[in-house]
Amino acid sequence: MEAHHRTQDFEETDGDADNLRLYQQLYSYATHGNTNRFNDTIANELHNPNARIQLLSRRSPQNNTFVHIAVSSGHVELAAKILQQHKPLLLEKNFEGDTALHIAAKAGDIDTTTNTLLRKLN
Q: Which residue intervals correspond to the ANK repeats (predicted)?
């Protein structure tokens, strides 16, 4: 119910409603591993680099970034692509204090995830 109120509060202005729509699209693409649509949406909708970083840094109600969401959904390549656009997201923690690497370790996939994420950061 709290998330519902946050959504209603966020939709008070047209600009905020557009940002919420974009966030919801990107959230869906991150959970489904749709890398092409995620990247296309970022490229086509957000021409301002600051707006792009602001949206990529946005948090879910659980304080997860898109990197957390992609990794927890098993889409490490998408997480790596997101990190290429904003590297500091690798160190961001959610409400449980977990980074994306913590989530991968809990899932038992730390070697593959670490190699993929860190290789793409260079």
A: 96-122
